[in-house]
Amino acid sequence: xxxxxxxxxxxxxxxxxxxxxxxxxxxxxxxxxxxxxxxxxxxxxxxxxxxxxxxxxxxxxxxxxxxxxxxxxxxxxxxxxxxxxxxxxxxxxxxxxxxxxx
Length: 102
Description:
It contains one helix and six strands; from the N terminus they run ββαββββ. The protein is mainly beta. The chain has a domain at about 10-65. It has a two-stranded antiparallel sheet with strand order 1-2. A two-stranded antiparallel ribbon has the order 3-4. A hairpin with a 5-residue loop joins strand 3 (about 50-55) and strand 4 (about 60-65). The longest helix is centred in the middle third of the chain and has 10 residues, at about 35-45. It starts with 19 loop residues before the first strand and ends in a 5-residue tail after the last strand.
């Protein structure tokens, strides 16, 4: 992909191809992978703000979540109030947040 400074305002470093789109979920414009837009929109709609991401169709991806209003816990699953047991003993990342007021 051809490098450019055109999108430095939103931390993007190359020309847009058909897999990218400029979006704004209320915190300013940024360049998004089209396939990631539903996830990014859903996270931002419920109050989880994202700063950066990359998704290229299933083989690799990442997302940066701002932690201003977020708490993270790593827990061992123990579903004592459920009949299912398939998750017991597995590690999970529990993300809790409060929606920021504008």
